[in-house]
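Q: Got a minute? One more chain.
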Amino acid sequence: MSEEIGGEMVPDSTRELNIDGELDIMIEDLDLWYGTKQALHGVSLPIAKNSVTALIGPSGCGKSTLLRTINRMNDLIPICKYEGTITKGDVVITDKGADLVELRKSIGMVFQRPNPFPKSIYDNVAYGVRLHHQPTRDELDAIVEKSLNRAAIWNEVADRLHDLGTSLSGGQQQRLCIARTIAIEPDVILMDEPCSALDPIATAAIEELILELKKDFTVVIVTHSMSQAARVSDYTGFMYLGRMVEFNKTEKIFSEPDQELTQRYITGRFG
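A: Always. Here it is, folded:
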C-alpha cells in the first residue's frame, strides 16, 4: 500500500526484511509519537549480529528517533510514547519493566558531536567501568589501554593519559568517546551521525574503525552521507516520513533498489 503525502507516493513500511547470519535485535511494528505527532509508522527492522546496519534518509525522516528507541533513550522525553516491540534475544527491550542500566550497558551509544567528560583521557574511558565494576588498578589500566587500542587512538594518547579529554582534536575526541563506549563491553554500538562534525581525514579514521569494530560488535549507524553508508555498511534501511521504505543488503540498495522512491533519493533527485 502507498499513500500520497506532500505530493509523494510513500509506501507503507516494508516487510521485506531478510538478513544473512545471526539476528541480534529485531524491531517489529514500531509506532512512535511525540505528543500528537506520529514520528514512526509501523517500522520493522532486523539487525544482524557482527554487521554494520546503516539508516539513511532526509532530515526529519525518523532515523535518529528509531536509533534512540533501541536503547530507550527516547524515554527521557516526557511526551514520547510508542507501541510495538524490540527484542534482543530473550530480552524485550520495550517492556516497561526492562532494566535500563543493564540495557544501556549492553547497547552503547556514540553521539553526533564528540562529548568527552571534562576529565582526563584515562578517566573518560575508566568512568563507565568504575560504575559497573570494582576493578583493581591493574585491571583498570589494562581495560583503558585495550579500549583505546580498539578505538585506534592509543598510539596518539599513550603518553598523555592525564591530559583533559577535551584537549584532543575533534576526531580524537570522537574516537575517545568510542573507546569510552566499548570499555564496558557492550554487544551493540549505536552511532548517530558520528562523523557529521568531523573533517574528511577524521571521518576516514572513524569509518576505518567502524569496519574493525564489527568484528567484535554489532553496529547501527545513522548517516546523512550515502557514500559513507555504501562504504561501511552491510545492510541499509532507507527511511522517509517515519516509514522504513526499503531494507536490504547495502550493495542491492545502491545498485538496484526495489522502490522508485529509494532510487530517486540515492540519485539525488529529492531529499
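A: The mean pLDDT is 92.
Q: Perfect, thanks.
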